[in-house]
């Protein structure tokens, strides 16, 4: 399975969730597969998709604040996620090269641990958008790294039912390692300008 | 007014409710005050660039954001300031302890201390150099609004002599 098929598979389950997507071909492929206002296409700042997603997740994580609000009371009898507006989960599509560039982010995510955050790392062992040069991720196991940091909920994508995980109420931030084959789809350049991407995103997630 | 308290009061008056930080000895007291403030979410980060990525997301989530860091951290943020903040016209308040300025005892701080204003100039990013507490409080109080209006990050450089 290449990245395109993995993104297509995952987007088949995404409903109200917010998606923050990595620079380059991942964003182009997502745009082609399922463009939506709730996708944030990160056109620059390689490495920061997980950080942008984390900031969004912390600021929207109701379980994190001191005001024990009505949402929490309503959720007591339910194992299901309340996906009402404002309570959507934040899903980040990241890559192995980008994770290597900002590895401290994994440590910060673990420590902050927002319960509405899922980091999916597509790992093809190469810098896919720049000509498939090898990354060091080929010689290490990013899932084991996440485990050793302390992530209690970290999974190999092929071993899980993603839909179940997506729809369950989370106790922790989730790390998902998705091993894929190298290769980009023939996806066009995104024909939205940065302001358009931002403005429709802000409106959709408000 | 105490120099650290002036920065805190400025941030409060600006409505800042989400702060990321990488510490500097000169920011220690402000970080302690912020940790006591339940209205402010404080996220210590591993690297400044990571921090401003987190701030971008928090802004999308409705927060008013600031980073507290040493000016050395500006060097770690340059690409993200360009290809995230300028690209998407995002606001941010950057409070920097400006090391390597007059009175700096540590030689390693001097080169980046000299380069800091030039880096900001090169990126067309506006910055302020308050020299006393009253001045700092006033400038920081207006910083978020200025950042929103001008659609760029606003920096406040606090020299060694400020403290």
TrEMBL record, chain A:
Superkingdom of source: Archaea
UniProt GO BP: coenzyme M biosynthetic process
Pathway annotation from the record: Cofactor biosynthesis; coenzyme M biosynthesis; sulfoacetaldehyde from phosphoenolpyruvate and sulfite: step 4/4
EC number from the UniProt entry: 4.1.1.79
Record keywords: Coenzyme M biosynthesis, Decarboxylase, Lyase, Pyruvate
Keyword Lyase in annotation: yes
Enzyme class, spelled out: lyase
InterPro entries noted in UniProt: Sulfopyruvate_deCO2ase_bsu, THDP-binding, TPP_dependent_decarboxylase, TPP_enzyme_TPP-bd
Domain Thiamine pyrophosphate enzyme TPP-binding: residue ranges: 40-159
One Gene Ontology MF term: thiamine pyrophosphate binding
Catalytic activity annotation: 3-sulfopyruvate + H(+) = sulfoacetaldehyde + CO2
Function: Involved in the biosynthesis of the coenzyme M (2-mercaptoethanesulfonic acid). Catalyzes the decarboxylation of sulfopyruvate to sulfoacetaldehyde.
Oligomeric form and interacting partners: Heterododecamer composed of 6 subunits alpha and 6 subunits beta.
Protein name (Swiss-Prot/TrEMBL): sulfopyruvate decarboxylase
Organism: Candidatus Methanobinarius endosymbioticus
Automatic annotation (TrEMBL), chain B:
Catalytic activity: 3-sulfopyruvate + H(+) = sulfoacetaldehyde + CO2
GO biological process: coenzyme M biosynthetic process
E.C. designation(s): 4.1.1.79
Species this protein is from: Candidatus Methanobinarius endosymbioticus
Molecular function, one GO term: sulfopyruvate decarboxylase activity
Domain spans labelled Thiamine pyrophosphate enzyme N-terminal TPP-binding: 1-105
Keyword terms of this UniProt record: Coenzyme M biosynthesis, Decarboxylase, Lyase, Pyruvate
PANTHER family registered for this protein in UniProt: SULFOPYRUVATE DECARBOXYLASE, SULFOPYRUVATE DECARBOXYLASE SUBUNIT ALPHA
Keyword Disulfide bond part of the UniProt annotation: no
SUPFAM superfamilies in the record: Thiamin diphosphate-binding fold (THDP-binding)
Binding partners and assembly: Heterododecamer composed of 6 subunits alpha and 6 subunits beta.
Pfam family for this entry, one: TPP_enzyme_N
Gene label: comD
Keyword Ribonucleoprotein part of the UniProt annotation: no
Protein role: Involved in the biosynthesis of the coenzyme M (2-mercaptoethanesulfonic acid). Catalyzes the decarboxylation of sulfopyruvate to sulfoacetaldehyde.
Pathway recorded for this protein: Cofactor biosynthesis; coenzyme M biosynthesis; sulfoacetaldehyde from phosphoenolpyruvate and sulfite: step 4/4
Entry protein name: sulfopyruvate decarboxylase
CDD domains tied to this protein: TPP_PYR_POX_like (cd07035)
